[in-house]
Amino acid sequence: MCIPAARPRLADLLGITLSLTCLVHCLALPLLILLAPALGTWIAMPEWVHASILMLALPAATLAMKDGWRRHGRALPALLAAAGIGLLAAGLAAHEGWMALVNPETADRWLTSMGAVALVTAHLLNWRWRHDYREHLR
After folding, report:
1. DSSP state of 26
2. Domain containing 45: what range?
């Protein structure tokens, strides 16, 4: 059972894990498919994975950034998280064909990768600034 103070830490860890999972999915999976075409159907993930990751990342980022703001008062992690969530949502929209794009697969990969990097950066900054010893001395 998590005590209330541990929930934001877990939200940061969940956010970092989900963002890195997203990044690996977007970058490593296509590379593996290019290197080993026979494994393409075995490694392929179901279509619902993109939406699931976004639906898990949103509350994790919200909880973590809200607690981080209360503790360190810096807006950068929340701004990066908002941008990351927006990019993930745009990547999902490209993936699902909800956006009129010439190459939706490339757009999906780029948007989702940039969103994942922004979210990982947001969570890492939030984690660092929340747990920075000097911040606790203020």
Report:
1. I
2. 8-136
